[in-house]
Amino acid sequence: MGSYIVKRIFAIIPIFLFATFLTFGMIQLSPVDPAEAYFAASNTHPTEEMLEQKRQELGLDQSLLVQYVQTVINIVQLDFGDSYISNKPVWDEVVMRIPATVQLAALGFLLTICISVPLGFLAGIKKDSLIDHFSRILSFLGASIPSFWLGYLLVLFFSVKLDLFPVEGTGSWLHLVLPAITLAFPLIALYTRMLRANVLENLYQPYVLFARMRGINEYWIMTKHVLRIAISPVITGLGMNLGMFLTGTVIVEMVFSWPGFGRYFVDAIFNRDIPVIQCYVLLAASLFLICNLIVDLIQLYVDPRIVQKGETMQ
């Protein structure tokens, strides 16, 4: 098991290097000159001498190989350069905004788990009951309503009409409620439907019949065996979406004026702030890699047969 974990950790390194290569390549293939973007962000009309000097400062006069190696070295040191807008280190500004995004993502992730798991499980073991019909309606709505539209509907009803929650911004826990619901609702619908289908599939497996024939308590069969096996794909999906929770809050942050990293990224796109865009892409890739590693370790705990399957495939 230890060797399997070490292999999974070391497998992240080449994938991360590939992500840095793609990011570097996209910037090089972009028709936007970083030097021109820098002066455009500050509303300055540069001369050719100013552009040339800025290209030298950014290292654009060096070969592509030297630029890439230097980029990787800077990334490892968490040095993404200075923002074209604020002229402050990008990493410092990201660190300042990440807590707001993490706060929103954590609550959205918690809502997803606390609602989808029990609802999907109960809908599966109580097929065609009232709670099963409710889960179907919820899944249909979650798959049909775009996040930005849901956000505006929640604002209209709970903020404008009922005046229960703030419209936008941050401050108290009340500011978190509507953005977190907007973020979690589509995934609640998705994983409720997924877990329900998995539970229904496992209910008719031979091991359930044998357990009942042996006189094992029904509650123990459902929770210890059926739920543990049925939830495995859900854990994988939740882990993959954990990175999305942290980096995919862009729409929600824009709708609710949430001062997080996603909104900072959108502003960077409009202003062609290349260092910020590069930082966002690489941070998103890193978060997805880390989240997938965490999911693999959780899956290893839930189903130790994963190690045996990996060794068999090798």
Set down the secondary structure blueprint:
Blueprint (H helix, E strand, L loop, with lengths): L1 H9 L1 H18 L4 H8 L6 H10 L6 H13 L13 H36 L4 H15 L2 H15 L12 H30 L2 H8 L4 H13 L1 H16 L2 H6 L5 H10 L3 H29 L2 H9 L1
Helix pairs in contact: 2-15, 3-4, 6-7, 6-9, 6-12, 7-9, 8-9, 9-11, 9-12, 12-15, 14-15
Provide key terms for this protein.
single chain, 314 residues, 16 helices, 0% strand, flat
Structure, explained:
By secondary structure, this protein is mainly α. It has two domains: 2-76, no CATH class; 98-313, MetI-like (MetI-like fold). The protein is built from 16 helices and no strands.
Quaternary structure type? single chain
For the record, the CATH class of the largest domain is Mainly Alpha
Low-pLDDT runs of 5+ residues are 310-314
CATH homologous superfamily identity of the largest domain: MetI-like
CATH level 3 topology of the largest domain = MetI-like fold
The helical percent reads over 70%
Shape: flat
Q: How many domain units?
A: 2
Q: What number is the mean pLDDT? A: 81
* Helix and strand composition category: mainly alpha
Number of strands: 0
CATH architecture of the largest domain: Orthogonal Bundle
Put simply, the count of helices is 16
User: Beta-sheet strand percentage?
Assistant: under 5%
Q: What's the alpha carbon Rg, rounded to whole Å?
A: 24 Å
Report on the biggest sheet: none
Topology pattern, helix = H, strand = E: HHHHHHHHHHHHHHHH
State the end-to-end CA separation.
Answer: 15 Å
